[in-house]
């Protein structure tokens, strides 16, 4: 019953939001298209509920590269808006989280929910410890508990801990509270960029060092 109510709310909110923000979406699409070479939308494989893959939609905020051309294991972390990979519109869109608006379509399709753990890229699945696998028991979200607690300023394990906590506590009122806190976080502009030493790649490298270079996928804790 709780899942049905959540899904009904997701459909209602995402459909209404797409309708109301249509002029804004068109203006953003035009800005992205005119500013730099490449498609308006960036699509990327992500891991959803029950670890099933889907393709997420975002406004393109970086120089034109396909998701397949990006080596997630070697990609440098974006730690500031001055990163040369980010386009001029991208700096603003990332700062206000407007690049995520196309995910309203993912929500309407049933790939995502308004609130839930943020969907990870397939490469990150390798470094999710078993004790946090419960994050895949619910649909991934446009926003979530980790986002209102610090977004990318949180370390990798802190993000996963928040995800697991959300799964234990989620409900309609809890979700509404997270949505309200999200508005404050977005307009405050905090946590947009994280530090290289706190992300999943740093955790992966630490596991490798701890296990003397052995395959970290087989030594998850």
List strands and helices in order, with pairings:
Blueprint (H helix, E strand, L loop, with lengths): L1 H19 L1 H14 L5 E7 L5 E7 L28 H8 L7 H7 L3 E3 L25 E3 L1 H5 L6 H14 L2 H17 L11 H11 L11
Parallel strand pairs: 3-4
Antiparallel strand pairs: 1-2
Helix pairs in contact: 1-4
Sheet with most strands: strand arrangement: 1-2
Overall form: globular
Uncertain stretches of 5 or more adjacent residues: none
Number of helices: 8
Distance between the termini: 34 Å
Largest sheet: 2 strands, antiparallel
Mean pLDDT, all residues: 88
Helix residue percentage: 40-55%
**Pairing-aware structural class of the strands and helices?**
mainly alpha
In short:
The protein has 221 residues and is mainly α. The chain contains 8 helices and 4 strands; from the N terminus they run H-H-E-E-H-H-E-E-H-H-H-H.
